[in-house]
Amino acid sequence: MMNKKEIVIETLPMSNVRIGFHQDFSTYHLWNWIKWKKEGVGVPPIIIGSDDTGIFATNIYNEYANVYLMLIQYYNLSHTEAMNVLEEFKRNGDVYRFKGDRMNGA
User: Taking the C-alpha atoms of 54, 66, 10 and 81 in order, what is their torsion angle to the nearest 10 degrees?
Assistant: First the structure.
């Protein structure tokens, strides 16, 4: 249903792992969405975000790097497969980003 209505999932990996019930990235819900999409389940567009840089000591580059490492090390994707996943997240971010944000002059 969310997929058909183009309701986007914005996931903030470091923030979610640190303050959520996940012990580490290996149990993070993003992996289910990626797996379900590969299986043909209708998954909404996913965007990777970053949250509270001062508190979580991260930024968007670190978020993507952590996701990449998990895809390679724990889920045994090839470099190309992992990059394809990340590129899809990036494209989703470009399409579904907030427009007219006064903070960035857009």
Answer: 160
Nearest one of 45, 64, 66 to 3, comparing CA atoms: 45
pLDDT, tens only, 47-104: 998 877 776 778 889 999 999 999 999 889 999 999 999 999 999 999 988 776 555 5
Instruction: Tell me the sheet residues that pair with 47.
Output: 10
Q: Is the dihedral of CA 42, 47, 50, 51 positive or negative?
A: negative
Distance CA 27, CA 22 (A): 6
At a CB cut-off of 8 Å and minimum separation 6, what does 88 contact? Answer: 46
Using CB atoms within 10 Å of the CB of residue 14, give its burial: 0 to 12 exposed, 13 to 18 middle, 19+ buried: buried
The 3-state DSSP composition of the chain as helix, strand, coil percent (nearest 5) reads 50, 5, 40
